Amino acid sequence: DAKTTQPPSMDCAEGRAANLPCNHSTISGNEYVYWYRQIHSQGPQYIIHGLKNNETNEMASLIITEDRKSSTLILPHATLRDTAVYYCIVRAEGSQGNLIFGKGTKLSVKP
Amino acid sequence: ETGVTQTPRHLVMGMTNKKSLKCEQHLGHNAMYWYKQSAKKPLELMFVYSLEERVENNSVPSRFSPECPNSSHLFLHLHTLQPEDSALYLCASSQEAGEVDEQFFGPGTRLTVL
Fold it and tell me: Is residue A19 predicted with pLDDT exceeding 70?
């Protein structure tokens, strides 16, 4: 079973920041937080991952709380093409690539 | 061609047919994966290959038979499937299995079993 909890759906206005929350209260010290997204009828796409520190790349920012029990994925300027299901996954190094996907959050970006 | 490709993109088969799904990665990765995504269910990991050796088999029925002839190619051989096997089958690759790196997914094969 997935070790994360996410809201089933969220809306965001085009051009505004989308903040997607994720709870992972049972995360272990060696587990990373990953975010993937899946646009309709496509394969999942990696977005970002982190362990303790906040991370930023060209797609998004990842904010991890100090106790690591929750995190937020931030899309700074959402576009219509960001409409997708976003998956938050915790995964330990050495787990043979086991990405255990939950149900994710369906983000709808509206004009 | 770059990334992870899958063929065919769509497949309809009867329960008595034998078919194969093909995945190819052009990224120089050593690990490849098969996932299944059924309607309204999360993605499920089926098989993991590392350097052409199967390192994980998540209790998948024997009617699904994977094959990894080299690190760039992965097949999923299908025989005597059931209608409930209808799903999107996704292939992925990563630099190494078990490392903290991203997985690159293909577009998937939409399988319908009649």
Answer: yes
Query: Is there a contact between B48 and A101 if contact means CB atoms under 8 Å apart?
Result: no
**B109-113 and B10-13 as β-strands: parallel, antiparallel, unpaired?**
parallel
Query: What number of residues does chain B have?
Result: 114
d(CA A29, CA A69): 11
Decide if A97 and B31 are in contact by the 8 Å CB cutoff: yes
Distance CA A72, CA A19 (A): 6
Closest Cα in chain B to A39: B107
* Distance of alpha carbon B15 from the chain centroid: 19
User: Confidence band (pLDDT; 50, 70, 90) for B29?
Assistant: very high
SS3 call for A72: strand
Question: Cβ A99–B56 below 8 Å, yes or no?
Answer: no
